[in-house]
Amino acid sequence: MSLFLVFLAIVIAGALVWLGVAVARGRPLPAELDGGLEEPASGLPPVVLPEWPTADDVDRVRFSLAFRGYRMDQVDEVLERLRNRIADQDREIARLKDLERPEVEASE
To answer: Which of 12, 14, 29, 82 is positioned for an S-S bond with 33, CB 3.0–4.6 A?
Structure first.
């Protein structure tokens, strides 16, 4: 076990020296290390909901796991669609209630 740890320490030290020399000479870092926190290119299928999702559709939604959890862009997209759908339903409910009130008052 200790031999493995020594080997691992040597590999890590070598990688750090290599990066230090590359940066000191003005060479650009490899693309894998220079990407920073850019948005990764998605090769994953999109999370799809029907045009008018139901509670069962929401229950069936599954997000792909990324390195540190769910993919934020997929979660944001689904939440935005659900928010819009709920807002549409609320507007429709309010419209139907407004249509219902005059009829009730007129029949009295």
So the answer is: 29
| Local structure of residue 39 (DSSP, 8 states) | P
Sign of CA dihedral 51, 55, 57, 62: positive
Global pTM exceeds 0.85: no
Structure token pair of residue 92: 């429709």
Q: Which two tokens stand for residue 63?
A: 């997000």
- At 89-99, the pLDDT tens digits run 888 988 999 98
- In tens, the pLDDT along 6-59 reads 999 999 999 888 878 777 777 666 665 555 556 656 666 777 778 877 777 877
Calpha distance 13→5 (Å, rounded): 12
62 and 75 Cβ atoms separated by less than 8 Å: no
Q: pLDDT tens digit string along 22-34?
A: 777 776 666 655 5
Show Cβ contacts of residue 71 under 8 Å, excluding neighbours closer than 6 positions: 42, 44, 63, 64, 65
Strand boundaries in 1-108, DSSP class E = 65-66, 69-70
